[in-house]
Amino acid sequence: MADVTLSDIRKSYGAVMTVHGVDLDIKDGEFVVLVGPSGCGKSTLLRMIAGLETITGGTLNIGGSVVNDLDPKDRDIAMVFQSYALYPHMTVATNMGFSLEHRGASKAVIAERVNWAAGILGLTSLLDRYPRQLSGGQRQRVAMGRAIVRNPQVFLFDEPLSNLDAKLRVVMRGEIKALHQKLKTTTIYVTHDQVEAMTMADRIVVLNGGRVEQIGAPLDLYDRPANQFVAGFIGSPSMNFLEGKITEAGFQTSGGVLPLPKLINSEMGQTAVYGIRPEHFRLSDHPSHASVPAEIVLIEPMGPETQVTMKFGETQVTGVFRERINGAPGEVIHVSPEVGSIHLFSEDGDTRLN
Amino acid sequence: MRADISPRAKVALYGVMCVLLIPFVFPTWWMVTSSIKPISDIFAFPPQLVPQSYDWTTYSKVFELQPFVRQYWNSAYIAAVVTVGTMIISSMAGYAFARIRFPYANAIFMIVLLGLLIPSEVTIVPLFQMFLKAGMVNTHWPLILVPIFGAPSVFATFVMRQFFVTLPAELEEAARVDGLGRFKIFTRIALPLAKPALASVAIFTFLHSWNLFLEPIVFLSSAEMFTLPQALTQYTDAYGGPMWNIQLAAATLTALPVLIVFIIAQKQFVEGLAHTGLKG
């Protein structure tokens, strides 16, 4: 187990820079998730930590020593790949014990460690099988077994669940989290799935275009996104954004006036972006000064809740309600945003105004 | 293939296949049966598809007229050395071209591939002069060195490169994280996974060397050094005419090991050839 510190880590391929100076302090035993859209540099960052990509600039520190120029094998890390990367010509047991064997461990030690890891991951009965004889979830577990068997300082996961079906993904998500709670090894996990990030991380690092947008605990990011990108990326269905002007009466949009939170960092008349999460709309029985009329476009009953796509002025917004809604497309309902859950961003989306 | 093929179509299909079989099977049948016919029966008219009388002495004469065992051994060990050598060189070169980033890798690979475009007949004279200077004429060295470093190996390198290009990079990265260096990754991960490609390289290299004819007749001059394809031409009478039945007996013995291996490893042969993209 070790701290991992990234100081101004940069990566460029020729003249093209893909990671623009990332600073990140990961504490011993922490579970950090790097999340962002495709091409945001999250996998590149992980691969630089692993030693599979060279670091163009900055300093990478693992367990108190600078490892920029060390080979992956000398960094004492273990990595789980998206495709699992199990050696097809080796059995589960050989796959798991391979790195120990290569490092000169005795057969007894290898057997003990492999059995220990297999026990934790429920692989004991599969040790003699070959990867081709395993299901996706079992392969995933073997890949994790291979990582934990030599007790590395840091675990790196590169989108390990993206090849699994939705149901298995949820199961494995829980297993990885449980494994981390048991072993308490520093873990860096890359995903593009914000639900995975929210459910697993101690801290999330949101990346976009090779830059860190925000670092924080999952609910901090959810409740107080630092900018419009993070606000839109975290949460599903994603946050609604409405453009308009800040006025004395409220937030003036093409569809009407919306209520504003009390403390805002801006001047009257300023153009801004109003953010509201779908679950932060409330249904009103009657029109009131706090509610706005919205035309129903689509109603999607999910069971516990109902997702409604509405037209508010020229803008389409999504609302999620606990109530069951008996409306039809074209009908007008009255909804009011929860004032305490409103997010205001500058016109360019880079700054939070409240 | 469609499963619901009608019985009539099936009969027609098998009929066509039987007809197509004739040009492939007949020469072998003729070779084997003629090897045990007296020479006059080979040219009898109408032709005897099934021998009327047998003359097994042809097989003993094969060994009396030439050091056939020695020639057999020559062919076998040369083919074995060439096969193993080509497998080593082509797998390493193919891996390097597929996986190691070095300056002008693609340009160098193209230049290497150009070697395939030059017919062996073009290079045989300069090669003869080179080996003559090196004192290697009438030794087996040219038959070993030319295929290992020449066109057959280039083709093998191409096959191996194409295989290694398709090997997932993540497997090698996992091996790097597990602590392996480049050479260990090659020997422990890449090579064991390349067995199908290696098998096809082994098959066509062995066959190429076993059947090699032009090079032996250029480089070898004494019967003790001959390989089988060359030895077959030496079964002639006092006037230089071929002793057909003895020659065909020797040919049968020459084809035998390849035939046996083919019957045993038919599946691997077909898969191996499919792998190379060669048409059988």
UniProtKB/TrEMBL annotation, chain A:
SUPFAM superfamilies: MOP-like (SSF50331), P-loop containing nucleoside triphosphate hydrolases (SSF52540). One of its GO terms (cellular component) is ATP-binding cassette (ABC) transporter complex, substrate-binding subunit-containing. Residues 4-234 form the ABC transporter domain. It is a peripheral membrane protein. The keyword Phosphoprotein does not apply. InterPro entries: AAA+_ATPase, ABC_transporter-like_ATP-bd, ABC_transporter-like_CS, ABC_transpr_MalK-like, ABC_transpr_MalK/UgpC-like, Mo/tungstate-bd_C_term_dom, NA-bd_OB-fold, OB_MalK-like. GO terms for biological process: carbohydrate transport. Keywords: ATP-binding, Cell inner membrane, Cell membrane, Membrane, Nucleotide-binding, Sugar transport, Transport. PROSITE patterns: ABC_TRANSPORTER_1 (PS00211), ABC_TRANSPORTER_2 (PS50893). Pfam families: ABC_tran (PF00005), OB_MalK (PF17912). The keyword Transmembrane does not apply. GO terms for molecular function: ABC-type transporter activity; ATP binding; ATP hydrolysis activity. It is found in: Cell inner membrane. CDD domains: ABC_MalK_N. Gene3D superfamilies: 2.40.50.100, Nucleic acid-binding proteins (2.40.50.140), P-loop containing nucleotide triphosphate hydrolases (3.40.50.300). Belongs to the ABC transporter superfamily. NCBIfam families: PRK11650.1. This is Multiple sugar transport system ATP-binding protein.
From TrEMBL, chain B:
It holds the Pfam family BPD_transp_1. It comes from the Bacteria. This is Multiple sugar transport system permease protein. Gene3D superfamilies: MetI-like (1.10.3720.10). PROSITE patterns: ABC_TM1 (PS50928). It is a multi-pass membrane protein. SUPFAM superfamilies: MetI-like. Residues 72-265 form the ABC transmembrane type-1 domain. The keyword Lipid biosynthesis does not apply. The keyword Ion transport does not apply. It is found in: Cell membrane. The chain crosses the membrane at residues 12-32, 76-97, 104-128, 140-164, 185-207, 244-265. GO terms for cellular component: plasma membrane. GO terms for biological process: transmembrane transport. It comes from Rhizobium wenxiniae. Keywords: Cell membrane, Membrane, Sugar transport, Transmembrane, Transmembrane helix, Transport. Belongs to the binding-protein-dependent transport system permease family.
